[in-house]
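ok trying again, last paste got cut off:
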Amino acid sequence: MGRSARSVILYGLRGVGKTVLLNRIRANADAHGFFTVVIETPEERSLPSILGPALRGTLLKLNRVQAVKAATGELAKRAMRVLASFAKAAKIKYQDVEFQIDVDPELGSADSGDLDIDLTELILAVGQAAQESDTAVCLFIDELQYVQEEQLSALITALHRASQESLPITMVAAGLPQLLGQMGRAKSYAERLFEFVSIGALDVYEAERALCIPAKNEGVEFDKQAIASILSSSEGYPYFIQEWGKHSWDCAGASPITQNDVESAAAIALAQLDASFFRVRFDRLTPAEKRYMRAMAELGAGPHRSGDIAAKLKRKVDSVAPTRSNLIQKGMVYSPNHGDTAFTVPMFDGFMKRTMPDWEKG
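nice, full thing came through this time. structure:
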């Protein structure tokens, strides 16, 4: 209908289903004829290096749509030239930009070398091309917290300008809880421009449905004690419900799945989480970072005051601040309030205790 709406940010801990929700929303957008741009932002990569190739594919599709409609598609062609200009300028500033655009650049557009200006001009050009094609473009960005704040600021500015121009381009993104603070620091008006949606553990009713409905669809049920045990062990986190449910299913000989089946599966489920979900994150840490997180675990699930963690390490707060900063950058911890530190991975305190039982001796 040509009306602007706020972009959406899904935020929460690891394992709560943000990526699943992002993919479902994208599938709905595809079904409604949107042009979707799918991006996962890895660490150590610039936003232009991943956004450019994704937009190139979208603009090629827009050009094909115009060809089918026998329309001129001038704005889609211009957007491709603007993208070529953007790529050329970004390649100089961001050394990781490698994609090529096989058209002549639009001189004087998105080629200033100032990301705020260039990204805004690019997003406007894409929005105008979508408008010309009577469609909408939606950016789907996962792990948005890894985008550096300077680049995040440019993205917010570009989307804000597109909204002011009532152009049909928007964003649905997902990230860890620290994303709220990052966006607020990047642009003070971010809270007005985006709808922030907290994704967390399921309540008892939702968790029971998540466990039981898929099983019921296959003709299998859980008895009440088994349900209560799985919901307690998983603490309502969707990924953990899946793990406990799967291994309880494997241990059961018949329906209904019982409390005894769940007890038999508990050690297997925990070992599987330790070997995959937890371990893949633990292995990215330096020895100093592991000790910091082990000290956090000693204090409990958290959040914890930075001073208390430092005291547990028998260090001064200032001396461990760089380690804390690195852990935030890696997405392992976040600061829910000033001076507080919390795990981004649910139940990671228990894993750290199991993995580093004698940490104080070493």
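cool. The longest strand covers residues 169-175. The chain has a mean pLDDT of 90.
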